[in-house]
Amino acid sequence: MSLLGVFLAFNEGLELGILVVLTVFYFFLYTTDPEKILFKKEVND
Fold it and tell me: What's the number of domains the chain is made of?
């Protein structure tokens, strides 16, 4: 494999990883109550 091929494969994997993280993050946001999280943060401060 050429260096470019390795780079493209790594970049593809990186983008896939970011997509998975974003999907989980948005799923977490939609399944939890944002107001509760904000309220907890304000109370902790």
Answer: 1
Flag whether the pTM goes above 0.70: no
Q: Is the dihedral of CA 13, 14, 20, 23 positive or negative?
A: negative
Which residue, chain included where needed, has tokens 């309220």? 39
In the predicted structure, residue 4 carries a pLDDT above the cut 80:
yes
Would you report the helix, strand and coil content of the chain in percent, each value rounded to 5?
A: 90, 0, 10
Beta-carbon contacts of residue 1 (< 8 Å; ≥ 6 apart): 9
Domain that holds residue 18: 3-44
Q: With 70 as the cut, is the pLDDT of residue 32 above it? A: yes
